[in-house]
Amino acid sequence: MTLAEAKSIARAKQPKLAVKAVRKGALPPESPAAIGVARVERDRRWHDELARRVREYKATMDIMKRRGARRARPKSAKEPADAEPKSKSSSFVPLQIFAEGDSWFDYPALFFGGGIIPRLENLLGVPILNLAKAGDEVRYMLGVEERLLLADHLSKGCPAGGPWDALLFSGGGNDIVDNPMALWVKDWDPTVPAAQLVHQQRFDAALALVRAGYEDLIQLRDRLSPGTVLVFQGYDFAIPDGRGICHLGPWLKPTFDLRNFPTLAARQEVVKAMLQQFAAMLTGLAVHANVIFINGQGTLLPQKSSWHNELHPSKKGFQSFANLFHRELKALFPARVV
Fold it and tell me: How far apart are CA 296 and CA 213, in angstroms?
């Protein structure tokens, strides 16, 4: 049973959710009460979405375990979808993986198939329970609500039975960009190298908050599921060129405009300096047992075509990062990853 076959069966068995039509002009008035109702509704929808992801993951993994997991054959191979594997070598014990993070894991599927997670699923041939939410920050991922969710999944293990093999985590990018970035980027000064135009004490404070979240995640894993491998990633050198997406962003260029940076090259030097410090922080955390840091910085060519917008890689770029995760997981679990 391949991943695609198992997903198809699992989805066919899932209940269909009714979608309520919203009449044009039927939006509630902007009052404190209406805003509160909207926030409650937003949270309810997100909890429903998480529940759907868990149900679909469990159903898919149950099918693959019950019928036997096998890897998809090349498209040129002609054989019935329900055919049994021709040899034991095509069967494997599926890895049990879940993910928490930001838009690098939860990029909308309508944009060339999403971000890292769906691409990694295809490479591994197994489902990944994806708890990530675009725009999320580490301070919220390890805040009360999301920390309790992580703790619940770590303590209970995989919904299909057994412990988790790995937790993939992508966080920190949203903590150090957007409006607050103006606090730790200095005014343009042509007499100072661009990479040094970071207010270091302030940026250290922002990075310390991100590090605290990662440290707490490691402690949570150590206490609840010590055998689960934590896999972190450090983004690549984003290009602050002012490109957003779907009325979101830009997240970088406005700060540099405020600080009077004259060129894209100068802006890039500051972004690179900050992300290198972020990677150095994660490298230091990777000394803990069962903690892996995938440093993908420098993977993408430093040109606009490598990026879909200021913060997110192109289709090819996301695939390159999925390949990095696949390579690392293969090194960790050589008998279960091809």
Answer: 21
